[in-house]
Amino acid sequence: MVDLVKYTHSLALQAREASRQLVIATGEQKSRWLQLAADGIRRCSAEIIAANAQDLKAAPGYGLNTAAIDRLRLNESRLDAIAAALDDVIALPEPIGEVIDSNVRPNGLLVTRVRVPLGVVFFIYESRPNVTVDAAALCVKSGNAVILRGGKEALHSNLAFYQVLKNALIDAKLPEHAVQLVETTDREAVSHFLKLSQYIDVTIPRGGKSLIERVTAEASMPVIKHFDGVCHVYVDSSADLEQATAILINGKCQRPGVCNATETVLIHADVANSFLSHAVPLLKEKKVELRCCERSHDLVPGSLQATEADFRTEYLDLILSVKIVDSLDEAIGHITEFGSGHTDAIVTRDLASAERFTTRVDSAAVIVNASTRFNDGGEFGLGAEIGISTDKFHARGPCGLKELTSYKYVVHGQGQIRR
Amino acid sequence: MVDLVKYTHSLALQAREASRQLVIATGEQKSRWLQLAADGIRRCSAEIIAANAQDLKAAPGYGLNTAAIDRLRLNESRLDAIAAALDDVIALPEPIGEVIDSNVRPNGLLVTRVRVPLGVVFFIYESRPNVTVDAAALCVKSGNAVILRGGKEALHSNLAFYQVLKNALIDAKLPEHAVQLVETTDREAVSHFLKLSQYIDVTIPRGGKSLIERVTAEASMPVIKHFDGVCHVYVDSSADLEQATAILINGKCQRPGVCNATETVLIHADVANSFLSHAVPLLKEKKVELRCCERSHDLVPGSLQATEADFRTEYLDLILSVKIVDSLDEAIGHITEFGSGHTDAIVTRDLASAERFTTRVDSAAVIVNASTRFNDGGEFGLGAEIGISTDKFHARGPCGLKELTSYKYVVHGQGQIRR
Questions:
Q1: How near does any CA of chain B get to the CA of A56, in Å?
Q2: What 3-state DSSP class applies to B174?
Q3: Closest CA to B410 of A400, A346, A16
Q4: Do B222 and A393 touch (CB under 8 A)?
Q5: CA nearest neighbour of A369 among A229, A245, A228, A230
Q6: Count of alpha carbons within 13 Å of A343, Cβ hemisphere only?
Q7: Which residues in chain A have their CB less than 8 angstroms from residue B235's CB?
Q8: pLDDT value of position A233
Q9: SS (H, E, C) chain A
Q10: What whole-number distance in Å separates Cα of residue A206 and Cα of residue A186?
Q11: Strand, coil or helix: what is B227?
Q12: Which of A59, B50, B124, B136 is the most interior residue, by most CB within 10 Å?
């Protein structure tokens, strides 16, 4: 029986101490750690796969379905991909110590803003065990200590990865507690961590809405939230309808289970008939179920009628809400009312429409003439990402290395005093 | 009897609606508003001074001392200064719409980050009525709607300013509710606003520690915190002692009641004797009371002995804690343990010492060879500031226009879909 108060406090305090040393770790040391970890994952693949087998065995007992069990499964080629992802993180530029901007004052003071780590990250996530490795790599490369709290379904796999990451920290002469894994699956442990704002600088929950809501309500420190993506494609009256169809089908079908998949298409009335007659057969070919507003329902024989709730739903499935609008502004109004501020796209050939849409739609990513699926750290050029923030505060959209940092003012003078 | 739930909800909702229109306000419109407000303050000076007289009359009843009453007082020249500060805000560059950075992807997508407002700011402050005008100017210039909650001591003055600001909004054809003043002094109103995270994007409390702690505990939205400044000057063994003395005296005496005033001097043992014999007579001339560690106590006849609590205290007065240390690292350790992460300075001629200090001291501003008093938005070149953040999240140090903004990704493609 673990004393959770003591246990969580000791992990958090150890993380804080490790973070103080990580601030001054060189990029070379951190790359060495990432390299050793990648090597370790490849070398210990048999142990990791054996640990994963324990999780797979227990998975049906946790009620995991076939798809979830598949996501949990590790094999040689998946381990190779996880190790290769570490090589990619090594290749990203060192974020810490960068002079973000500077300013010489009339009195000669040189005022610089220098990028520094946030400190300690508490990262809560579910299922897929590769996230353990990705998150640790991003946090430590950005100079932060991290406390990892994975799902109980992946506990053995996570522990196996953790052992590799920890050994690599010791070998790289980085603080051993730079990465820590919460070894109890007790839900109460999370509540205890969320009280420790004196040690933990930010909490990042990645998982379902209820997890994020619970964490936000309980946390005494800032939280980077990753809420759902009710993403729209708006087909403007001036759209290239071939292009609009390709963008819609890609957004809906390329990977329907993720947050930047398209959930709703809004169509300008002037092109509704021709767009739908072109797009619907292709959507049906992809087995997409259509839930239509009253007007589009008439144009799509055999479609279902959408309820108001449908327009607010992140289906994460091959289902699409369809609505005809009379103007760009009606589309923007619908997105403001029903969207989740994640990713929204317009397909248009009209410059003024594109400008109006990008200025007025208040979402983390607003896209002109491309698929909503591009809102992703890798696709935006940030390298790996630890999540996609639906907040406006601190970080918005994909969170990579820089989003895990803060800054401080470093000022150089020659004896200046204030008059 | 006001229904606080309804009242706070209606202000917050109005602010949210105003913020949607402010996103698309041009810089010209906002400048016009600032100009009209400056003109209005000058034109209505008699009314404002009459309203202020009501506050001054009530001030002794609120227990305000002479200094606080003086800070509350408005006269023609102070009103001129408040109006002139608006001219300064007009002169600052327009923050909204700036492309912060951009990135062309291999597939031709142009990924830009565009600066946008946070949305709605709830600003809580005390006493000085000029803050009403400054805060409104910064929030609206950065495209945010603001709900102002001033202290009860300044209510009549604040209402008079608010009338001017509101009339100017209407004349400038900006949304009337872009600036709203909470007209009840009921403390409970604050608690109600702090629950309305669906409308309010950030709360900024500016005042005593207990206010900030209460707001942080209750707020359901992010808070930009401005905690106390236990600021240090460390006199290195290689310091120019004349320079160190000037920096210390400026930091302590130029304006002792503010957060970036110096509270503690740490002195390397090698120079303690010569530094103290030079500096102490000058400090005494300025009527500074010295509270000394055991070793320095012996070197300063007639000084008081410092307790551990002294080293943690923001005196905001002509009192200075003094401690002799044996090394730069001991100084850094003391600052880590006793400091508040606000502003810390080193006086040194040694490059390695300067680098070690700026890298390892984890404060919002770390200063080499200049006074701690420079940690200020105006002095750092940000223009006016709404506060100095002691957080690491979102904004650290002085918060000017940019710190009141977020960003969104705006992506331009030519039909790209994800493979």
A1: 30
A2: coil
A3: A346
A4: yes
A5: A245
A6: 29
A7: none
A8: 98
A9: CCCHHHHHHHHHHHHHHHHHHHCCCCHHHHHHHHHHHHHHHHHCHHHHHHHHHHHHHHHHHHCCCHHHHHHHCCCHHHHHHHHHHHHHHHHCCCCCCCEEEEEECCCCCEEEEEEEECCEEEEECCCCCHHHHHHHHHHHHCCCEEEEECCHHHHHHHHHHHHHHHHHHHHCCCCHHHEEECCCCCHHHHHHHHCCCCCCCEEEECCCHHHHHHHHHHCCCCECCCCCCCEEEEECCCCCHHHHHHHHHHHHHCCCCCCCCEEEEEEEHHHHHHHHHHHHHHHHHCCCEEEECHHHHHHCCCCEECCHHHHCCCCCCCEEEEEEECCHHHHHHHHHHHCCCCEEEEECCCHHHHHHHHHHCCCCEEEEEECHHHCCHHHHCCCCCCEEECCCCCCCEEECCHHHEEEEEEEEEEEECCC
A10: 18
A11: coil
A12: B136
Tens digit of pLDDT for each residue in A349-368? 999 999 999 999 999 999 99
Which residues of A are less than 8 Å from B97 in CB distance?
A: 359
Residues of A in contact with B342 (CB under 8 A): none
How many CB atoms lie under 10 A from the CB of residue B294? 10
Which of B114, B99, B173, B183 has its CA nearest to residue B149? B183
When CB atoms are compared, the residue of A105, A373, A406 closest to B396 is: A406
ipTM: 0.95
Q: Do B149 and B123 touch, CB atoms closer than 8 A? A: yes
Q: Which residues of A touch B383 (CB under 8 A)?
A: none
Closest listed residue to residue A391, CA positions, set A315, A356, A340, A333? A340
| Identity of residue B124 | I
State the residue for tokens 């992460």: B341
Band of residue A78 on the pLDDT scale cut at 50, 70, 90: very high
Let me know: does B128 contact B161? Beta carbons within 8 Å: no
Q: How far apart are CA B218 and CA A91, in angstroms?
A: 43
pLDDT at B208: 85
Chain A nearest-CA residue for B26: A359
Percentage of chain A exceeding pLDDT 70 = 99
What's the alpha-carbon Rg for chain B, to the nearest Å?
24
What does the pLDDT read at residue B1? 52
CB distance A417–B23 less than 8 Å?
no
Q: Across B105-154, where does the E strand assignment appear? A: 110-117, 120-124, 145-149
A366: nearest CA partner in chain B: B410
* Residues in contact with A66: Cβ distance below 8 Å, sequence separation at least 6, in sequence order: none
Among residues A415, A413, A417, A409, the alpha carbon closest in space to that of A100 is found at A409
Q: What is the distance between the alpha carbons of residues B378 and B384, in angstroms, rounded to a whole number?
A: 6
The residue type found at A92 is L
Q: Which residues from chain B sit within 8 angstroms of residue A195, using beta carbons?
A: none
Sign of the alpha-carbon dihedral angle for B356, B359, B362, B366: positive
Q: How many CB atoms lie within 10 A of CB B46?
A: 10
Give the sign of the dihedral formed by CA B283, CA B287, CA B289, CA B294.
Answer: positive
B195 at interface of A, judged by CB pairs closer than 8 A: no
Neighbour-count burial of A75, counting CB atoms closer than 10 A to its CB (0-12 exposed, 13-18 middle, 19+ buried): exposed
Q: Min CA distance, B63 vs chain A (Å)?
A: 32
Q: Does B240 touch chain A (CB under 8 A)?
A: yes
Q: Name the 3-class secondary structure at B416.
A: strand
Q: Beta partners for B114?
A: B99, B408
Q: Which domains does chain A have, with CATH numbers?
A: 4-225+395-412 (3.40.605.10), 231-379 (3.40.309.10)
> Comparing C-alpha atoms, which of B24, B147, B137 is closest to residue B86?
B137
Residue % of chain A over a pLDDT of 90: 93
- The nearest alpha carbon in chain A to B349 belongs to A414
Q: Output Rg (C-alpha) for chain A, integer angstroms.
A: 24
CA distance A358 to B8: 31
